[in-house]
């Protein structure tokens, strides 16, 4: 009887030790899980977007495309500069239903939210229009995505920072010497839908040559070869013109971004040309 009692007590004692150990293991696992969750939350919070006006300050090369309801296509190509104090200005070339004009943005203000979204406004004296827009900053503020919020205007685009706040952009021909692949889209007089892709070469002495293949309203057109000249300004905007093998003389404007690796292109004939695109350095 005594042996049975001792054996029973030993068994009960063993169960107690196992239960206690299991309790401690479960408790430790729970504490560890809570600790891991807290650490993950802190990590996520520390990596959430934190932006201010300073994040999106500097000079940006940008392009936008869309339309003015009841008027026609609307294109923008040029520069805007934003300052940490929330003020801004712009210098652009506009194309409105095939007519091109230089324009400025003055008395600009903007606000950047903590989540890197924001909104702004500026006056365009040439249009007698107060422009309203929203934006999103990405890539630590080096890229900005824009959308116009004026009633009756459908316009969107993006820009790349080319100079930090309080510093002027500095470009010269050496930045864009070499070969670029490019694409174009838009419309021409009598041709509501145009697309093209080709190769463009810049030389140091301001010469260009290239070729492309195009589609007009879904129909293929002959290969186009061309030669001409370009002028790149110190502020990273520029102009170009060329004559092609189809008998056309073409004028265009452009803005250089990403250290010369990318160029925003926009037609500037002013005769119903609503063409824009992007050129990217081959290597």
Task: Explain how this protein is built.
The structure is a single chain. By secondary structure, the protein is α+β, with helices and mostly antiparallel strands. The protein is built from one helix and 16 strands. An eight-stranded antiparallel beta barrel has the order 1-2-3-4-5-6-7-8. The longest helix has 45 residues, at 2-46. It is globular and about 65 Å long.
Layout of helices and strands:
Blueprint: H1 2-46, E1 58-68, E2 72-82, E3 87-96, E4 99-112, E5 117-124, E6 129-138, E7 143-148, E8 153-163, E9 178-188, E10 191-202, E11 207-216, E12 219-232, E13 237-244, E14 249-257, E15 262-267, E16 274-281
Antiparallel strand pairs: 1-2, 1-8, 2-3, 3-4, 4-5, 5-6, 6-7, 7-8, 9-10, 9-16, 10-11, 11-12, 12-13, 13-14, 14-15, 15-16
Q: In angstroms, what separates the terminal alpha carbons? A: 93 Å
Portion in beta strands: over 45%
Percent range of helical residues: 10-25%
Report the strand count.
16
Largest sheet: 8 strands, antiparallel, barrel
Descriptive labels:
single chain; 283 residues; 8-stranded antiparallel β-barrel; 1 helix
Quick synopsis:
The protein is of the alpha+beta class. It has one helix spanning 2-46, and strands at 58-68, 72-82, 87-96, 99-112, 117-124, 129-138, 143-148, 153-163, 178-188, 191-202, 207-216, 219-232, 237-244, 249-257, 262-267, 274-281.
């Amino acid at each position: 009887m005594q042996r049975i009692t001792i054996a029973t007590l030993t068994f009960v004692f063993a169960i107690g030790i196992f239960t206690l150990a299991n309790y401690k293991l479960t408790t430790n696992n729970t504490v560890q899980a809570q600790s891991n969750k807290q650490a993950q939350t802190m990590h996520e919070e520390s990596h959430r977007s934190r932006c201010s006006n300073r994040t999106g300050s500097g000079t940006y090369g940008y392009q936008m495309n869309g339309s003015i309801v009841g008027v026609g296509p609307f294109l923008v190509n040029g520069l805007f500069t934003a300052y940490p104090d929330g003020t801004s200005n712009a210098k652009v070339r506009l194309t409105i239903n095939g007519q091109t004009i230089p324009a400025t943005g003055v008395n600009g203000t903007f606000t950047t939210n903590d989540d890197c979204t924001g909104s702004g406004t500026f006056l365009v004296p040439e249009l007698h229009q107060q422009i309203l827009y929203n934006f999103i900053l990405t890539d630590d503020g080096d890229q900005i995505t824009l959308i116009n919020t004026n009633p009756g205007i459908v316009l969107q685009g993006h820009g790349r920072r080319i100079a930090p706040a309080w510093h002027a952009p500095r470009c010269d021909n050496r930045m864009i010497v070499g070969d670029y692949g490019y694409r174009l889209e838009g419309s021409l007089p009598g041709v509501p839908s145009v697309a093209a892709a080709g190769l463009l070469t810049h030389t140091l002495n301001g010469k260009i040559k290239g070729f492309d293949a195009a589609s007009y309203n879904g129909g293929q057109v002959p290969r186009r070869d061309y030669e001409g000249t370009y002028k790149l300004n110190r502020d990273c905007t520029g102009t170009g013109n060329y004559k092609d093998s189809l008998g056309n003389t073409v004028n265009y404007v452009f803005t250089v971004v990403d250290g010369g690796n990318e160029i925003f292109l926009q037609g500037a004939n002013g005769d119903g040309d609503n063409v824009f695109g992007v050129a990217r350095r081959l290597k």
